[in-house]
Amino acid sequence: MIMMIIMMIMMIMMIMMIDDNNDDNDDNDNDDNEEEEEGEDDSDDRKKKKKKKVFKLSLEDTEDFNAKLRKRGVVYISRIPPRMGPLKLKQLLSEYGVVTRLYLAEEDKAVRKRRMKGHKGGGKRYVEGWVEFEKNSVAKRVGNGLNNMPITNHKRNVHYGDLWNMKFLGKKFQWSHLTEKVAYERRVRDQKLRVEIMQAKRENAAYSSLVEAGQKLDHIEARRSKTQTQKQ
Fold it and tell me: DSSP code of 56?
């Protein structure tokens, strides 16, 4: 009996020793994980501290770029046929030279609304456009050569029967002039819209004041008629 008790005590001590070893291993693993996390945080901090590289253009590069801009030419298109968008226009004119930029002005929203009511097609349409070519000579050749010429000779094409209406704007016209023109027209349009809103507010206020005055007069007339009936 005593031997059995001694053996049980020894087994319990061995189990306790094994648990202590496991706890030590877990503590070591946790320490390692903490060290790894600290290392990752330090690396993230280093990445954040790194400044982004700023690419500075030299004076020669800017002068070359400005010289290239001066060599470009702009063509004005006074009419954009239906079903022709920027991608289609660029695809057609790229056959004659490199198209660097283009801008198409959309039709007025009120016009589009009336057109949609008349069931004439509700797709987006453009009224005019500007196309910039890489070379001024190409723009001049395209503007003078394609004006009043058919867009296509294929009868199954949707643009069959439509003519090009374009004009070369000259060597002195630059794309910056167009952006200034668009910005000016946008400011004028916003100013016009503000004036119309203010006028509508004034008319609404005047109408509401007239309605209130009419209601007051009706109330006075009703009281007069009531007093007269009571006297009778």
Answer: P
Alpha-helix runs per DSSP H in 2-85: 2-49, 59-71
- Helix, strand, coil content of the chain in percent (nearest 5): 60, 10, 25
**Tokens 């704007």 sit on residue:** 169
Token pair of 89 as six digits: 């226009």
CA 130/CA 89 separation, integer angstroms: 10
3-state secondary structure of 119: coil
What's residue 217's pLDDT? 83
- Residues in the chain, overall count: 232
Token code pair at residue 16: 């306790």
| Strand residue runs (E) in the chain | 73-77, 99-106, 126-133, 166-168
Residue 172 to residues 71, 73, 137, 141, 157: CA-CA distances in angstroms? 10, 9, 13, 16, 36
* Cα–Cα distance for residue pair 184/70, rounded to 1 Å: 23
Q: What is the pTM of this model?
A: 0.53
- 129 bridge partner residues: 77, 104
Confirm if 174 and 107 have CB atoms less than 8 A apart: no
CB 168 within 8 A of CB 147: no
Name the average pLDDT for the chain: 76
Average pLDDT over residues 83-89: 91
What number is the average pLDDT over the span 150-178? 87
| Strands of 166-168's sheet in order across | 99-106, 126-133, 73-77, 166-168
The span from the first CA to the last CA of the chain, in angstroms, equals 130
